[in-house]
Amino acid sequence: MTLELNEFQQATLTVPEEFDLFLGGGRGGGKSYALALLALRHAEQYQERARILYIRRSYKGLADFEQVCREVFSMVYGTAARYNANEHTWRFPNGAIMELDQLESQGDYAKFQGRSFTLLMVDEAGQFADSALLDLLRSNMRGPRDIPIRMVMAANPGGAGHHWLAHRFALRSRPWLPFKEPKSKREWVYCPSTFSGNRFIDREQYAEQLEAACPDDPELLRAWVEGDWAVNRGAYFASVLDEKRNMIEPWKAIPDGWQTYLAHDWGSSAPSATYVCARSPGGREGTVGGVYFPRNSIVLVDELATHKTGNMSAGLGWTVPETAENIRAMCRRWKIPAAGVADDACFAKTGHAAGSIGDEFSKEGVRFRPARKADRMTGWNRMRKLLANAGKPDSAGLYISSDCRYFWSTVPYLPRDAKKIEDVDSSGPDHAADAVRYACLQVQPVTRVDIGFAA
Description:
Elements: H1 7-14, E1 20-23, H2 31-46, E2 51-56, H3 62-77, E3 82-84, E4 89-91, E5 97-102, H4 106-109, E6 119-122, H5 132-137, E7 150-154, H6 162-170, E8 179-181, E9 186-190, H7 203-213, H8 218-226, H9 243-246, E10 247-248, E11 259-265, E12 273-279, E13 287-288, E14 291-292, E15 298-305, E16 307-308, E17 311-315, H10 320-334, E18 339-342, H11 357-363, E19 367-370, H12 376-389, E20 398-401, H13 405-410, H14 431-441, H15 448-451
Parallel strand pairs: 1-7, 1-9, 2-5, 2-6, 6-7, 10-20, 11-18, 15-20, 18-19
Antiparallel strand pairs: 3-4, 4-5, 8-9, 11-12, 12-15, 13-14, 16-17
């Protein structure tokens, strides 16, 4: 029986094996079928030496791919390729082995330690908020000299991992051209697809289903339909955040008459994010660098984000004293008090001598008070309104300096929570967004008399 392929699948199979692959198109393009075909070819080429691992974030996600494999492998082997559903393992008649497994946490990785695979495939990679676990799996890619090891990842735009996949793969180079990915130090090829190029599905019906799935999110719909990672500005802030309106040139100083305060979201193993916020007094003093900021507009002047290089979801492990020292230094540069608002959880009593995180900051000369963030929706709605109003001459808006790189690398890409669409998906790198949410809820002035200057 002849295997029929669409154009995307044919093109994917023509990419030389020495290149890793990122199958990063829209929905319905035939990526899962392409993964099964790549596995089949690898098994045929290297036979008993082929060791293939297919990964999803959960076991539940394996079911669809199991069915795709049954369809593809049965066309070639009939019943000679056997699948053990309990072990999630395919054994091919030529001795090749393919395992289907899940990887959700560091604890899950223990089952792969000491094992070797010649082909590693990750499906729905966008479900991983950061790349740490998948990068760790690369240490299991080993094989004989004459077998090229290979990693293949498949993902749709718009998931929790949109930011790192777009940065490392989708926006790195033009489609179908090899490029060097710095973190893996490997040559990759970005292979995009869309459902419009998949002649094996009812494309009209599928388009209707996609439209029904996101009626209030045109940006996400475009990303799913067109497979364009640059289009998706993150489902949650897509309609209100625009670099042309919200991004401003860096300031050299904060003008007199502007209220200043800090907004902080604590993290150690996860990143912390701290913003220098300036609130406009309006009137003559509200004009800075030829730009007028209506009264009560908020400008994020500077940021301190404690994330690892290349990983927006991993913190530097800083203690409160280390974080406070860097916050004080930032405040000295701007000649402002080291005081403001922080996550309410920072003020929970921990039971040890140091008291709460807020108490520890206070001892280090950084004085925070609870943001009293109420429910998340109140904060998000306030933030969205301020973002949407930026650029209007008679409404307070939210403006962000281009120097706030962590904000611009994460907030525009945050997706909606799939189960609660009016909320942000908190599995993504939402630390900057949380800090800004606290900033937008800040209404009580922070005075110099109350808290003094940064030491």
